[in-house]
Amino acid sequence: MLGFLKKPVVVTVEINMNLVALTVLGLISRLWGLSYPRAVVFDEVYYGQFVSLYMKRIFFVDDSGPPFGHMLLALGGYLGGFDGNFLWNRIGAEYSMNVPVWSLRLLPALAGALCVPLAYQILVELQFSHCAALGAALLILLENSLITQSRFMLLESILIFFILLAILSYLKFYNLQRHSSFSGSWWFWLVLTGVACSCAVGVKYMGLFIYMLLLAIAGLHFWHMIGDQNLSNISLVCHFLARGLALVIIPVAMYLSFFYVHLTLLYRSGPHDQIMTSAFQASLEGGLARITQGQPLEVAYGSQITLRNVLGKPMQCWLHSHTNTYPIRYENGRGSSHQQQVTCYPFKDVNNWWIVKDPGMQQLVVSNPPRPVRHGHIVQLVHGITTRYLNTHDVAAPLSPHSQEVSCYIDYNISMPAQNLWRVEIVNRESDTDVWKTILSEVRLVHVNTSAVLKASGFIGASLPEWGYRQLEVVGEKLSKGYHQSMVWNVEEHRYGKSQEQKEREVELHSPTQMDISKNLSFMAKFTELQWKILTLKNEDTEHKYSSSALDWITMDTNIAYWLHPTSGAQIHLLGNVVTWASANVAALVYTCLSLWYLIRRRRKIYDIPEDAWQLWVSAGGICVGGWAVNYLPFFLMEKTLFLYHYLPALTFQILLIPIVLQHLGNHLCRSLLLKSMFSALVVAWFSSVYFVYCTFSPVTYGEPTLSVAELKDLRWKDSWNILIRKQ
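Given the sequence above, the corresponding structure tokens read:
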């Protein structure tokens, strides 16, 4: 029974020393002197503020992408004990002692370091030689721009890491497909492909393009499997379901989980939640939640309410009125009704309160029991302070002459009768008998007499002149019959009116509510709203000193000064290895030309290279050229401020293409021993130049040693580069 003890237990482990050495070198190149400089470097000023908000659990919205990348940066701060107390307002500002600089920069640096062994393994899985794989890894290792970008609290290195991990995982899965389908390792690499794709998309939406590329490649491979007569129908169905689970369902679930964690962590109100709906704001601790806690849920006749415009552009605002009237004549000579002004006011104010009145009754208080207002009911809206009725009529609005003026009616005893009946239409109703609910219901107020819809003017900056206190215009929109958020309002603050006398009512309007009704949103409701805001909320792009066009990136005609020492000439720049960038462009051109040549020749039944070499050439191109294209070409369609670092994911794929082309040239075009020897010597000389350029520019990659003015001028290899020279 104990016979197995007669022999020793032996564990055999294979260690790829190339992989170990490359990993160590990658870690050294990215982690060395990571805390230097101890100052805010370029976009750290942008991402740092989000890290601080995570530390303080304060909600924010970043229109640049999903939250996963921000959470990883915040994880570094959390591991370092960061309390979030730092003012991220200036590039170059010295970090205070409470900021764990090394921890904040650690995860991007680790991701950048691991890209080196990933590059090696990708070429090995593509069936290229270990020499070519080693060359690809060393090119990534010695690429100055990738080093610079990975040594600071930035997201590009993390994005590139997950992209390369997704590529490697799929290649390993595909290679196992031939002999180990549905094995443990087969499942592991397939699922890891989906996980890595989801993480790439979760860091930046640019990861979506590589995800689509991998889905296309997986679809093509499965299409070939369908033609395999050795596979049964059941086996094909199982393969299809496995891919659907790993490459679609799991990534979607993970993407949702990023937002779930994000929303769970950020439960406190902050400056960014003002762009969200009232329901979303009320779900956060503090802020609007403190004001709306305990409000009545159902709007009834006699309710006192504030109406917030759902659009929130150009800023959030509430339906508002005050005692001032429209001028008899506007600056352009057009006449007005001279009625009381109605505007959309971007601040909380007692003049934002309105009373929902039953047109058939005079009372302005809620009856017992309350009579709720439902979809389709006709109401009058009485301004709480001035007691005048919301009104519109066939008079042109002050800034939008195609629309009707909205006012609070003043009886001047002239031929302009009151038209103050409004029909409540609940846009997000589930049935035609839905009750108008506080915060939750989005309503349109349709004028009964003219069918005009109450609307916050859609013009950006459509604020009234001095006579309207620069408040935003409100109109009755006559022409549009479609749904637009500027026509939709929701009740934000709400109380049941109890005072019939005006003086008592004014006191009541200033008092807090008492009833306790919960308005918690579901996760999916919050996710949908936040996702929509991220996709549609665009900050106004401004020209930046270091912004560039996508065409500038290929030839590296631009650079970015990341940091300058306040007293010495030490500085850090985002500058690539010139030899590597030029070689990557040449490799892409050679690959394209050779591929076209081979295709034309193959069309003529002339096969210059063996079939297995051709398949290897095509598959490598699909990954590398395809990866470059999907990470670069979309920028020509984007209307946003672009920087050189946006090119780095595409550049990474171009770099992987260099040793692929070199091996192909050496194996198939250099046929004689002499040519092979000369070619090898040229490759060694070329790689030496790559290392020389890396060393030359390392002072502006790492920020030290400090260079003299003459040395800095010598680094300006292109007139378009902005190397900072201090005046003597």
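Confidence is low (pLDDT under 50) at residues 512-518. Try to locate this feature in the token string yourself.
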